[in-house]
Amino acid sequence: MQTGTMDIVVFDLETTGLSPYCEEIIQIAGMRMRDGVILKSEVFETYVNPGKRISSFITHYTGITNAQVCHAPGAVQALAEFSKFVGDATLVAHNGKRFDMPFIRETCLRNSTPVRPIGFIDSIAFSRRLWGRGGGHGLDVILNRLQLDPQSVRRHDARGDVAILAEAVRMMWSRIDPAFLKCPVPAGAGVIPV
């Protein structure tokens, strides 16, 4: 990050299941935000070939079909391209500490992919900072609190979730630090391909 500039990439993954140890990524989407401005022209999106069939349950949940991923890049290539898009930005994902970041880490480990450290923020931290520990911090709860209409995007499609999450992060951040001078929540570290 450049001094005085807060460069982040809000991102989301869709996967074949919940466990990063035995399931695979099927979609990656990201959107850049700089100093509180969502850069809608700076987006990343790709389907990912998981190397196995997507269950009917996951297709029903995400809308992602086997036909959509059959000619998509594999996880190693998709994550490498995502890493280029991210650059030195800080990553932001919702429930990313438990889900998205472990999926990236385990996918790289499984494929012997070299990694580099990357700054990471779980957007749940913004919600906890604003509304305390009670009341839930799922994305739908946050969207309701912020009066953002989830019907405006396709939920559980990484592209739709990133668009609505970027707006939610922008709104939560602006309520804590209207000038977007620094990150008002703790940041951690994750890994991403070199």
Describe the structure.
The structure is a single chain. The chain has a single domain, classed as Ribonuclease H-like superfamily/Ribonuclease H (Nucleotidyltransferase, domain 5), CATH 3.30.420.10. The model has no long low-confidence stretch (mean pLDDT 94). The chain is of the alpha/beta class. The protein has 7 helices and 6 strands. Helix 4 links the parallel strand 4 (90-93) and strand 5 (115-122). The two termini are 17 Å apart. A 6-stranded mixed β-sheet has the order 3-2-1-4-5-6, with helices on both faces. The longest helix has 19 residues, at 158-176.
Strand content: 15-25%
Q: Can you tell me the number of structural domains? A: 1
Number of strands: 6
Shape field = globular
From the N-terminal CA to the C-terminal CA, the straight-line distance is: 17 Å
- Rg (C-alpha, Å): 16 Å
Flag low-confidence runs: none
* Alpha-beta classification: alpha/beta
Topology record:
Elements: E1 7-15, E2 25-34, E3 37-47, H1 56-62, H2 66-69, H3 75-86, E4 90-93, H4 100-110, E5 115-122, H5 124-131, H6 139-145, H7 158-176, E6 188-193
Helix pairs in contact: 5-7
Key terms:
single chain; 194 residues; alpha/beta; Nucleotidyltransferase, domain 5; six-stranded mixed β-sheet; 7 helices; 6 strands; globular
What is this entry, summarized?
By secondary structure, this protein is an alpha/beta fold. The protein is built from seven helices and six strands. Strand 4, helix 4 and strand 5 form a beta-alpha-beta unit.
